């Protein structure tokens, strides 16, 4: 017969904490329905997206990208994409005030 080592199930890197059925967090996870768990994950994702959308760095980067696209020249597909982004992020901008008719792009001052 060959010698085999006994293997344990689960993570063996020593970083995970052992299973404790009396741990309150473990009990809460066991009783939480899957749809609530999914809702919690979605709430966390929305918080991250909101944090990015409200960041000054994101606004500055978006403005830089738009300005560079406009200065490099544009193709109809680039203009359509920029227009969609502008309308999405600037709901108060109308279709006439965005990129149509050779007018300039409004700066992204308030991304919400």
Automatic annotation (TrEMBL):
It comes from Ornithodoros erraticus (European soft tick). GO terms for molecular function: actin filament binding. One of its GO terms (cellular component) is plasma membrane. Residues 1-15 have a biased composition (Polar residues). Transmembrane segments: none annotated. It comes from the Eukaryota. InterPro entries: Aldolase-II_Adducin_sf. Residues 1-38 are annotated as: Disordered. This is Protein hu-li tai shao. PANTHER family: ADDUCIN (PTHR10672), PROTEIN HU-LI TAI SHAO (PTHR10672:SF3).
